[in-house]
Amino acid sequence: MLAVFWDDADLALGDGKLLYQEYNQFNLSDIYAEIIFNRTAQDVTKFEAQNGKAPFSPSWIVKITWDHILPVSHQKINLSESNTFQCILTTDGQRSFALLRYSDMNWGPGQRTNHDALIGYTDGKDNFHNEIPKPPNNLFGRGGRYRPQTVTGNTGVLGQLLYDLSGSTESSSDPQRKCQLWAFSEPDPKEWALGLAPCPCTRSQAQEDLAFGPDTLPSQQMALVRELRDLRWGGRRGRVFQSVLFNRQRAGKRCVYDPEGPLLAGYSERYFTEDRTQQHIEKDLLPFQWCCVQSPLCNLYLEKRPLDRCQGYSWSSFDSNIPGSRGAPGIGLAYGSLHFITFDGSEYTFKGLGEFVIVRLSSSTGSNVFTLQGETAPLVTGGQPKRVPALVRLAAFYQGVGKVEWRCAESEDGLKILVNDVVVPVFVGVVRVGEQGFAVRCITKSRCAVVYTEGLNVAVWRDEAGRLAALVEVPQRFYNRTLGLLAHWSSNRTDDFLLSNGRLLPSVNNITPSEQSLIPFGQSWAVPPPESLLFSQPPVTPFNPITTEELMSSVSPDMLARHSQTCQSSIQCVHDILATGNTKLGQQVLEDQQLLRTRTQIYGNMPPIVTEPTVIKCKIDTMVRVQVKAQDPNRDQITFSLALPRPPRATIGSGDGVLVWTPQSIQPVNLTIQVSDQTSSTMITPVLQLCNCLNGGSCQYNSVVENYLQGKFQVVGCLCPAGFSGKYCDDKADVCKGKPCFPGVECFRQKEPDSFTCGQCPFPTVYQDKPGYKCFENDFCLPPFPFPCHEMADCSSTGYNYTCKCKPGYTGSGKECTDINECMDPSACPNAKYECMNTPGSVRCSCRYQKTRDSDGCGESANPTGWNVFNVSMGWKDPKSEQGLKQLEEMLSMGFQNKFYSARVSSPDPVTAEGLNEFRINVSSDTPHWYVMDYLTRVSQYYGIRSAYVEDLDECKTNEAVCSKPAQCVNTYGGYRCVCNGTDLKEIQSCILEFTGVNRTDQTNGQSLEDKKSLILGLVLGIGIPLLLLLLLAALACFCCSRKKTVTGDIPHLLPEYVQETFHPPFNFDDPALQYFPHCSPRTIDNLTVQHMRHYR
């Protein structure tokens, strides 16, 4: 079993097609077929070369293509998800391969729950091979189970696999497998059986036919050959004859006969000669055992070794041009001193000396094919020559074969044989077999024959007086093509005596012309010297033969009557007794005549030839009527009978040949039909194919399940109806045995035949048509159902229901979804430096300082030294809430992260008359108050802020400045200054007013003013002027620095709508004065450090 791509497909969907084409090496119809053969041979040969095996030449190919096949679908059909792939099966008779090619493999998961496509093969016994993806759970990814076109196969080509399906042919013990391999490797019999002689139709014919002799066994493996031959039909009880000749392919014929005479079977053997004994065993004998005895594949054996039923041995058809044809070959005889019996049965005596043409055969074009010449000489008995001639030498020449010559042996009574003028030894048996298609066979040492192909035989024997006799058998193809002393074969005696010049010596009223009148006929067939095969010298002494009339008149009537009685009224026998004075020589003539009559009778009386039936198909307890078809070559009346033992309830009409039989069981039995004429019979044992199907099963006569009697009795298979199974459909089928339901779903048998139900499909799958049979992922969220949810919701099907859930960024029931304004949540963007912009289903955070010259992100930088202290006034929407300092710290920590340092409640009264909470916050020195104000305004709705105001804290007004009295407090942005006598005080300094009423600095060392007047004057004069210049330079630097605060870009006005609706910030963000650079600190002015209130962290 081969799985090219094993999964549920639906050819009814889309444009999917299944295409196939068979190719045979004997039927390469077009150039495309040749391309298929050549490419397959190349691909397989390359694959086999990797394993060190011989090249592959396919003899048969079938190509199957699945084109744009769609998977089985319950609901959703995606026409783009199709698969295209191909399989090529090929064999050379010994090796078999599957070539798999994958093109566009686009199946997706669809709505199927099991994705278990298989690619591989198994022989159903020991060999299993499956392609496993890497990793094994990879389904639809590259190299996955459903993407074989992305995998480099064992051929080294992407998307191409090649499997060797041959199995182990050497060690296989399966007879059926052996039979199939043998049959596939065997050529058509027409290639090697041409020219084989057909089996004689009867045993007696086989005994007389010079082209057939007794069966012989090889000198090696004799016992095994005998055992295997006995296994064939008729082998044990039959009598076996074999052909003397073999054809050019060294094939021959063996014929098996019933002891009573009919032919049982004729076997054409491809490996016939003894030098091919091992091949004869493996290729001729063992296949019969594999195919006909051990398996039900006898039809394969008969295709490669067709049985011979003697068709063609006699006339293959009745020819109206052959009057009174008895179906025999032409037989002529030259014997005695010197008598002839022509092919048409005319008898005459010719007493000429010299070399004569006994018979000459011509082809259809008129050219000479075969010549038999004989040399005559006066008969010598008792040392005295007689006045009658006899044959002393014979020579046969077959065009393209050579010459065979018969002579009397000089030293003994036997024959001397020369083949092409070379003496061959004479012994009983086949003494010579020529490669050109002839053999010399000796029955005795004094009787030898030359056997040619296609039925031409010449038998020559020697009698006691040294006379030679010749019997010539001519096959039917030479009908009307014979000339010479054996006359013209035409089944008409009136034209027998055709002279060599073409003139006819007529026979009046079918009466043979007189001996004297036939002398010109005989002399016309004298061999001209250039055509001689014997090269004999002409007679030296004159020969005066005695005529038959003179011999008959030379004795008394009583003596003539006694000789006639002795010779059984044979004139030729009486002639030779009188001519030689030797009764034995007359008796020899009588025996020669009897030999001809016997052979003519045996060959002429052909048995009936049965053509049908060769197979009888029948059913138990059902009567079958079969017409036996037979014909008799002699047109004799035939009768029909059944040989014993006959099957019960089997009869046949003796006259009409109608066989009637009602089989009652599958007990093996032979049914042999015998068809007889008056003298011979033919037997045929047809193959009986019995059907024993029960419960309405259909008989499958092309499928044999049991084989008996060497393939002659076969029980055929059954196609069981619904609900039944078993070999004969006698078992009630368990429809659940094959697990027809969906994997994991239980199967339940029903009372009705072949009926079952399945359990429910596993959640969340659903079924279509039949519950639990095929289960799919039903999806109410996909067509053809209308989408049940809001367009901004996700739909999840649960088999028979569905749920809707709004997508992220939306809120609602799923049936209805609205966009969530993520900007309401301060955490939507990283911090206050980003502007939050709501988008459908999401949010976009844009940097408020995109045009900054900083390269480290959105205004991100390390905090500079110092800090700013701002006053924050906040009012809450819910006055009862416990919001306050903690809430403010949370907001500022999220919005400003490292820019925010600390916050505290304003003391002593944190709540103003307007109900606002007062806070003090410490932020980095590069964070302005409007930045904080802007952020609090943006998040006011989220945190429930009713109002928020951020301003610079005037520490001098709020008495939060720490200045030594009587130093003057001067407020600055984000801080304050303590000035004494026009000079900023440090924290360790105190202030003492000068006498002029202006405050002065009191040094901690307690020096008196008087002591330092001179010093102050010196400082004023020595340092004051340079210091004034330094202050002017500082003022100029500060001016330049303040110019550098102008940003190159604008802060976008991107307040959300809800913020704009709630507050109107008192800032114009387009004002360059409010634009902010984190790296330019205003904390140091004129080289004077601004005083700050204590930093709370």
Task: Give a quick precis of the structure.
By secondary structure, the chain is an alpha+beta fold.
Q: Name the shape in a single word.
A: rod-shaped
Helix content: 10-25%
Number of DSSP-assigned strands: 64
Q: What structural class is derived from the secondary structure elements? A: alpha+beta
Strand coverage percent: 25-35%
Q: Report Rg.
A: 62 Å
What this model shows, in words?
The chain is α+β, with helices and mostly antiparallel strands and 1097 residues long. Among the domains are: 2-164, no CATH class; 175-308, no CATH class; 330-532, no CATH class; 609-725, Immunoglobulins (Immunoglobulin-like, Sandwich); 868-953, ACT domain (Alpha-Beta Plaits), CATH 3.30.70.260; 954-985, no CATH class. The chain contains 16 helices and 64 strands. The strands form 19 sheets. It has an eight-stranded antiparallel sheet, covered by helices on one side. It has a seven-stranded antiparallel sheet with strand order 23-22-21-20-19-18-29, with no helix packed on it. Strands 2, 3, 4, 5, 6 and 9 form a six-stranded antiparallel sheet that branches. Helix 2 crosses helix 5 and helix 5 (277-293) packs antiparallel against helix 6. The longest helix has 36 residues, at 1009-1044. It is rod-shaped. 35% of the residues are buried. Residues 315-327, 1000-1013 and 1037-1097 have low confidence and may be disordered.
